[in-house]
Every structure is written in C-alpha cells, then in structure tokens.
Design a protein that fits this description.
It is built from eleven helices and seven strands. The chain is an alpha+beta fold and 245 residues long. Helix 5 runs antiparallel to helix 6, helix 5 packs across helix 9 and helix 9 runs antiparallel to helix 11. The chain starts with a helix and ends with a strand. The model has no long low-confidence stretch (mean pLDDT 89). The structure holds adenosine-5'-triphosphate and magnesium ion.
Length: 245
C-alpha cells in the first residue's frame, strides 16, 4: 500500500513539470510579439511537441484515474455520444496515426466520420439517433476503456476493426472487434492479469506492458458493468462491454 501511494505521488508530481513544458511551447507558438518570429518548419516541430505533451498529460491523468478507480469513485456527467466517440477516436489516433486524428477532429457529422474511419479500416456501427443523444456517464473511464480496446485491436488486426455502439434497455453496449490472430481460449483469463502478454518474443508486442486490459477490467467492474471476450486462435477477437446506464 505504501509503495502504491509512493508511485501515485511520483506520477502526480509529473504534472507540474509537464505543465511548464506545455506553457513554454504555447508561449513560443502564440506570443511571437514577445518571443520572436518562428519559421513554418519550427512551428510544425513545436506543434508536434505540444500534441505529444498533451498525450503524456492525458496518460498521467489516466494513471491517476486508475488509482482513483480502485477506491470505486465514479464521477457521472451528462454528455453527448457524438462528443464522447469523437474525442475517444481523436485520442486513440493521436497515439497511432496523427494524420487521421487531425482529420477526425474536423469531421462535421456521423457520415463524414464514418468515411474518414473507413479509409483507415475502422468501421463504425452506430445509429444516427444514438449519435445525437445525451447520456449520463463516467466519461473519463469510458474513454479510457474504449481507447485501450481500440489501440489493441488496431495493433493486432490484419486489416479491419469494427466498433459498434448501441443502447439496449438500460445498458450501454459497445464492442471492438478485429480480424487478427485472435486469442486462444486458454489465455482468455490470463490476458486480464497485469503484465501478461502472449507471445512476448514477437517484437511488436514487446512495446506494450500488458497493463491495458487489466486496467480496462477494473474500470468496467467499478462501473458495475461486464466485459465479454469472444475469440479463438486465428479468428480475430471481439471485446464487448456492457454498462448499466
Ligand atoms: N485484440 C487482440 N488480439 C489479439 N491479442 C490481444 C488483443 N488484445 C490483447 N491481446 C493480447 O493480450 C495481451 C494483453 O493486452 P494488454 O492491452 O493488457 O497489454 P498490451 O497491449 O500488450 O500492453 P499495454 O499495457 O500497452 O496495453 C496482449 O499483449 C496480447 O497478447
Ligand atoms: Mg493494450
């Protein structure tokens, strides 16, 4: 427990220096009358640095959020599905493909978003009526869950990922499905344990930590939801999350 608090505190203390870096970059970008002119190339570098500072900041927040979640704190907020889905997708693609995340950012409606995603092999199944609806949810946790599942699916797919969002009675149901090598049933429990990865010899898996799904499981449970995995060797994987509204 003491060790846990110490790590949380260390992570927490990353916030201040990160904020200093962020304000510094923003000053250079936006206050040229004070800090002097910059070239177009320099501006691109600074913009990329800023985006990635934001990625680190959101990761730090995620880690702290996970700690909070262990204390079973759920903070509900009313929000539009469209904002939730769009923001989650921007965050996801910020980590895997920045061009796409910038395109998603400027999408005006659901059909346009669908087209943009389809170009990247991600199919979005969601009804227009739901897209416009407002719901009361723990936004941060849901974004974290979806982002982790999507990043995994994009990492392990062959060519295609399907994201489906639906509201059934009093449940929010969403699933992330890919067409990758899948997960043999002997590992269906194991992959939710911290630091567990299948095939660690494969260099593409080494980059992760085996922590994403363990975190997802904790978050789903804390919201009183359920997580189902349908997958078999060679047949892709489908993670389905059912959350009470
Ligand atoms: N969609 C998927 N298809 C096939 N295997 C998967 C899929 N998602 C997860 N796995 C397997 O489960 C393991 C655990 O996933 P998890 O998200 O917890 O860790 P990770 O993605 O390896 O690392 P990170 O901590 O960065 O998320 C992965 O290493 C992989 O072996
Ligand atoms: Mg992962």
């Amino acid at each position: 427990m003491r060790k846990r608090i110490k790590t949380d505190l260390l992570i927490h203390d990353l916030k201040v220096p990160l904020a200093v870096v962020e304000t510094g970059i923003i000053s250079l970008l936006q206050r040229r009358e004070k800090y002097g002119p910059i070239t177009e190339k320099q501006e691109k570098v600074l913009a990329r640095a800023l985006r990635n500072t934001k990625v680190i900041q959101s990761l730090v927040n995620d880690i702290l959020e996970l700690g909070k979640s262990r204390k079973r704190i759920v903070s509900l907020k009313s929000l539009k599905f469209s904002d939730l889905i769009e923001q989650t997708l921007v965050e996801t693609f910020d980590l895997v493909d920045r061009n796409t995340s910038e395109k998603i950012n400027i999408c005006a409606d659901l059909p346009q978003l669908r087209d943009t995603l389809e170009e990247r092999g991600l199919m979005l199944f969601m009804e227009e009526a739901l897209w416009c609806q407002e719901v009361c949810l723990d936004e941060v946790k849901i974004r974290q869950i979806l982002r982790n599942l999507l990043i995994n699916a994009l990492k392990y797919r062959k060519s295609r990922v399907e994201l489906e969002v639906d509201k059934k009675d009093f449940y929010l149901v969403f699933s992330v499905k890919d067409d990758g090598d899948g997960i043999p049933s002997i590992y269906h429990k194991k992959i939710f344990e911290s630091y567990f990865q299948m095939d660690v010899t494969d260099s593409s898996t080494v980059r992760g930590h085996g922590l994403g799904l363990a975190g997802v499981m904790i978050l789903v449970e804390d919201m009183g939801g359920e997580l189902f995995l349908e997958s078999d060797e060679g047949k892709g994987a489908k993670f389905l999350v059912k959350l009470p509204l």
